[in-house]
Design goal:
The complex is a heterodimer of chains A (about 110) and B (about 400).
Chain A (H helix, E strand, L loop, with lengths): L6 H5 L6 E6 L15 E5 L9 E6 L2 E10 L2 E5 L8 E3 L5 E11 L6
Antiparallel strand pairs in A: 1-2, 2-7, 3-4, 3-7, 4-5, 5-6
Chain B lengths: L1 E6 L2 H9 L8 E4 L6 E4 L1 H5 L13 H4 L3 E4 L2 H18 L3 E5 L2 E5 L6 H16 L3 E6 L2 H11 L6 E3 L3 H4 L16 H6 L5 H6 L2 H8 L1 H10 L17 E11 L2 H21 L2 E12 L12 E10 L2 H15 L6 E9 L2 E2 L13 H17 L16 H4 L16 E3 L1
Parallel strand pairs in B: 2-4, 7-8
Antiparallel strand pairs in B: 1-6, 1-7, 2-3, 5-6, 9-12, 10-11, 10-12, 10-13
Helix pairs in contact in B: 4-5, 10-11, 12-13, 13-14
Classes of the chains: A mainly beta (about 110), B alpha+beta (about 400).
Amino acid sequence: MVDELDLAKLCITNPNATIFVEADSGASMIDFGIFPGDKLIIDRSINAKHGDIAMVLWDGGYMIKKLSIRGSRVQLISGNPDNPPILVHPEADFSVIGVVTWSFKKQFRR
Amino acid sequence: MIGLVDGNNFYASCERVFQPQLIGKPVVVLSNNDGCAIARSNEAKALGIKMAQPIHEVPERIRKQLIIRSANFGLYGDLSGRVVSILRDLFPRVEVYSIDESFVTFEGIKDREAAAKEARARILQWTGIPCCVGIGSTKTLSKAANKLAKKTPHGVVEISDAMMQLANYPVDDLWGVGRKWSAKLGAEGILTAVDLMRADKDTLRSRYGVVMARTQQELLGVTCTELQEIEPDRKQIVVSRSFGREVIELDDLSEALSTFAVRAGEKLRARALQANGVWVWLNTNPFKPDMPQYHPSRAMKLIAATSDTREILLMAQALMRSMYRKGYCYKKAGVGLLDLTPGDVHQGDLFSGVDPRSAKLMTVLDTANQKFGRGTMGFASSGWREKPKWGMRQENLSPAYTSRWDQLLRVK
């Protein structure tokens, strides 16, 4: 049997833990290739590690940031030199919701 | 042993998954039709909001503190399906009982409590929904254990000694007992579950009927399968069954589902209720792990409350068709009616000038087509002269985060 190429199969390994969101991050993540309006796939079942781009709960809202994890020192890194890293204090209200596994941008503009 | 996995304040928790600003706030989800509370976060319960309480009866000073959401059944159905799929990966058997409750079994699982805690942690991480698990030797005991679990920080309770653990458990909090008996039971000195366990079996049967006698047996650890017939709490009607053989074709599935929808409609009218939402789920056979598995679940609100089987049927069919995928062997399906309200609530005045019956039918078709077909949004396109009442009632509706590309959560 010949399979069709299925984008969902390629990008979604755990559908029960996967959500889609839309980037509303302005210029803050452009160095990581994430632009406003891009569609992002978030897998909530992956335990985030140093260097992952993740959706986090920070200061009562969700954000997309790159994680820097050195021991107990967690920093939220932006993809833009104008946005300095945010240091997450150990007592702060912070959690990782899921890891950004893919991002999509529509190139066709007509 | 049987476990009952139950999503805490399920509808309110679903709203929080995509709206973190609701965490820690008093959230109330209202019914479609009459503005009654059908889900409350713990903070809203603490403010004294009661189940099924009309929101306009809440004093203004309290109402101002509440965050109010209209029922978003599309979202709840999606998250419910995810929870059930996760359970199917972890437990040998899963029986969906309502949109937010499933029974599971533990054959081959050595440490039940550890398995229940793992399930709870996984459901929370993967879906964002907090759950509790109650474990007991019968469904009635697992229901009671679940209620006890809600009061613990770890969220898992197993009843191993009912006489001790249910000594202070109010009898009217038991599955299948309900408030209507509590006065009579109380007058006879039956106040707790243990009082009921100790009552004379034959007297119970003659005074309260067969359901009460079975509840007593279940508390004593004797399984009475007839209890499956007890309707879920929180104003839902659910009809589900395994198919005699595996179903592959859309037409066969459609036929099976129709019988469930018709049965659900009968139950609805028998209780003089109207439904505001319809929920459908499909399951493949989990006992054939070599076959591809698919456990979709979808729900949608009806335009107006109905007890008309044709409308329920149309919506159930539309939901089923939107989920049906070729190449799977379906083994079980279910139809749920959600957000039930008393049948004397009429919405017919919305359609002045047209035959209300056909107009309603058409709008059901319209929504279904709009949601799952190629059509665009906007009920105005169906040629109505007036802005319908229900349109205004959706002002607190959260977006279709899991089912529409143009309504995705926007993240900074």
